[in-house]
Amino acid sequence: MSRLPAAPASKPAPEPSFLEFVLVIALMMGLVSLSIDNLLPAFDSIRSTFGVADPNRMQLVLTAYMAGFGIMQLVWGPVSDTIGRRKVLMIGLAIYTAGTVLAIFAPNYETLLLARAVQGMGGAAARVLSIAIIRDRYSGRDMARVMSLTLMIFIVVPVVAPAMGSAFLILGSWHYIFVSMLGLVIAVAIWFGLRMPETLHPEYRRKLSIAMVAFGIGRVVNNRASLTNMLAMGLAMGCLMTYVGSAQQIFETDIYKLGPWFPLAFGMIAICMGIASFTNSRLVKRLGMHKLSRAGMAGFTVMAAILLAEAYLFDGRPPLLVFGITMGIAHFLLSLTLPNFNALAMEPVGDVAGTASSFIGCVTTIMGAVIGGLIGEAYNGTIFPLACGYLGLSALCLVVMYGFGRSPALVASRAPAMVPGE
C-alpha cells in the first residue's frame, strides 16, 4: 500500500518589519495618549453637561483614568509572563472598550469618572505590553532607539488630539470624543491580532504566583540601575502630568484665553517633544542612554529656573511667545530623558520583562498622577505652581540620578533566572 506524500507544513505568518513593529507599538501607546489629550478641550462642555461647579474638579477626569491605569499595571505584566503578551493585550483592550461604551452613555459625572477608571484599567495593558514586547525583541541602545521612535510617533497623537476633540465639539457633543476612542481601540485590536506574533520567550514563561511576582519586583528594586531610573522617570512623569493637567486652563481659558486656538499651542509644544524623540533615536547609539538622559534633565532644570524667573518678572503671566518658547525648549529636553530612563530601567530585567514593566509602569504612573494632581490643585490663575513644580521635581530628579550613583556596567539578561518555588 503506497503512502500518500505528507502535506507541506504551513509556514508561519512573517513577522512585521521594523517599521510596522514601531507603528503597531506606537498605536498601542497612542491609545493611552489619546485617552487623555483629546478630552482637554471638552472640559467646559462636560462641566456644563453634568453641572460641575468647581472647574478644578474637571482634572478628576484625568486622575480617574490615571488611577485605574496605574493600579492595573501591576496585574497585566505578571499575567503576560504566564499566558503570553497577545492574550493579555486582547483582554485589556476588551476592558478598555467596556469603559469607553460606559463613558458614552454616562448619566452623571460620577459614572463618567467610573468609566474613565475602567478605561485606564484596560489601557494599562497597552502600555505595559508595549514596553514588554519591545524588551522581548530588543536590548541596550537598540531598545532605546525603538522606544524613541515609538515615542516620536506617539507624540503625534497629542499634536492632533486636542484639535480632534475641538472638532467633535463643533459637530455637537463631547460624546463623539469617546466614539473616536472606540474606533481606535478596535483598530489596535485588529492590527495587533492579525500581524503581531507572540514575543514572550518560551524559556521566560512562568507560573503565576505571589513568589514569582515578588521575585520580579525584587529584581527591579534590588538593581540599582533599574531602581534609580524608575524613580527618575516617575519624577519626570510628574512634570509631564503637571503640564497636561494645567494646560487647558493656562492656554484656553484663564491666562492666555486662546479659546479654539488652544489645540495649536498644545500641539506646538508636543511637536517639540516629537522632534526630541527623533533626535534621541539618532543620537542614542552614538552617545548612549546615560549621557542623553542626564544632559536632558540638567537642561530641563535650567529651563525650569528660567520659567520661574519669568513668572516673577511678569506676575505669573508672561507673554504667550515667551512662555511658549520656554516650554517648547523645556519639553524638548524632557523628552530626551523619558525613553532613556525607561530603557535603562528595563535593561537588566529582560527575563521578567512583563512583571518588571508592570511594576515600573505602576510606580511611575502613580508618581506622575499624584504629583500632577497635587500641583494641578494648586493652580491659582498663574504659572507659578507649574514653574515651582518643574524646578522642584527636576532638582529632585538630579539628586536621585547622581545621589544613587551610576550602577555597574549593565549586562542584558538573556538566560532565564529561576523563581523561588518554580
UniProtKB/TrEMBL annotation:
The keyword Cell membrane applies. It comes from the Bacteria. The keyword Lipid biosynthesis does not apply. Its main location: membrane. CDD domains: MFS_MdfA_MDR_like. It is found in: Cell inner membrane; Cell membrane. Pfam families: MFS_1 (PF07690). Residues 21-406 form the Major facilitator superfamily (MFS) profile domain. Belongs to the major facilitator superfamily. Bcr/CmlA family. This is Bcr/CflA family efflux transporter.
